[in-house]
Design brief:
By secondary structure, the protein is of the alpha/beta class. It folds into 2 domains: 108 residues, Conserved hypothetical protein from pyrococcus furiosus pfu- 392566-001, ParB domain (Alpha-Beta Complex); 124 residues, no CATH class. It has 11 helices and 7 strands. A 5-stranded mixed β-sheet has the order 1-5-3-4-2. It has a two-stranded parallel ribbon with strand order 6-7. A hairpin with a 5-residue loop joins strand 3 and strand 4. Helix 7 crosses helix 8, helix 8 crosses helix 9 and helix 10 packs across helix 11. The longest helix is centred in the C-terminal third of the chain and has 26 residues. It is elongated, with a radius of gyration of 26 Å. The two termini are 40 Å apart. The relative contact order is 0.07.
Length: 292
């Protein structure tokens, strides 16, 4: 098997600065003036200030600690800094990163993108605009990057999808695509063999590449976890019962269980699967001694 990865470049031809009629798009659409270019400077960390008025508090000390303990220049982005008329340097974006760097004795200065401040209101507006525009990296994009980085778990997830005719995708409307990457990743980390068996069964049960719902997948997996070696959720008899319900039927049963109990989660989803398997049986019923 050839695992050599070929690097390709995304097509950016659609992002031309000039409209087909020959006029600059920023002129035609009256885009905003970008203002003065920032200056990239290495600044002593002790010279950087956080404004009490608009900066958010550290969400958790653990998050700051995680950044500090796993610090790497290859992952560090320059801080957005505004310099006021007194020469003071206020951090607009990067408060957690600054706090993390302050915890390290081996880092004295950090790269910053510095613009001139027009006052506190100006800084606060920039902070709010950046917070609004900032889009967290989604699970699909992060998964793609981890596969390229040859992360062991991400590659195992990708191989399992491919083996069963599926691919990772952010759009659930496309056939033979799978979106619940976080759930499948957790399953593989907990029990790779069981994750492979459950996903293979559900993918085989899917009709013409229909969407595989996370609650059903996780519910079957967790049910087998809690039952352990004393029984097989995917034995022929049990599997036939689940196939008879189909993905839509099982999803409806799970939804009904969530309504009855007023909550969701893998324990509730697993209980719904258990009820489906045992429905109509007077003997040889699956049983759970205790739910994890």
């Amino acid at each position: 098997m050839n695992n050599k990865m070929v690097r390709t470049s995304k097509d950016t031809s659609a992002y031309s600065a000039v409209h087909p009629v020959g006029v600059a798009k920023r002129t035609m659409y009256k885009w905003s003036d970008p203002g003065d270019k920032p200056i990239i400077r290495w600044i002593e960390k002790g010279d950087l200030l956080l404004s009490e008025e608009y900066q958010r508090d550290a969400s958790t000390k653990q998050r700051v600690h995680n950044i500090a303990s796993d610090f790497s220049w290859s992952k560090f982005c320059p801080l957005a800094v505004s310099q006021d008329n007194k020469g003071r340097l206020w951090v607009i974006d990067g408060g957690h990163r600054l706090r993390a760097v302050l915890m390290r004795d081996d880092i004295a200065s950090i790269p910053c993108s510095v613009t001139q401040s027009n006052g506190l209101e100006y800084e606060a507006r920039i902070f709010a605009d950046q917070a609004k525009a900032r889009k967290p990296v989604g699970s699909y994009d992060r998964f793609k990057a981890l596969v390229v980085a040859r992360d062991k778990t991400a590659m195992a997830v990708n191989e399992l999808l491919i083996k069963n005719g599926y691919s990772a995708w952010s759009n659930t409307d496309k056939k033979y695509t799978f979106q619940a990457l976080g759930a499948l990743t957790k399953m593989i980390n907990r029990d790779p063999s069981l994750a492979e068996a459950v996903f293979g069964f559900v993918a085989d049960m899917a009709n013409d590449g229909e969407r595989i719902p996370r609650p059903m997948l996780t519910g079957i997996f967790h049910l087998q976890e809690v039952i352990g070696n004393k029984d097989d959720v995917l034995s022929k008899k049990n599997a036939d019962k689940l196939r008879a319900y189909g993905i839509k039927g099982l999803s409806a049963a799970i939804k009904q269980e969530c309504i009855i109990l007023g909550k969701g989660g893998e324990r509730v989803w697993a209980k719904a699967i258990l009820d489906v398997i045992n429905k109509g049986r007077r003997s040889i019923r699956l049983s759970v001694n205790s739910w994890k």
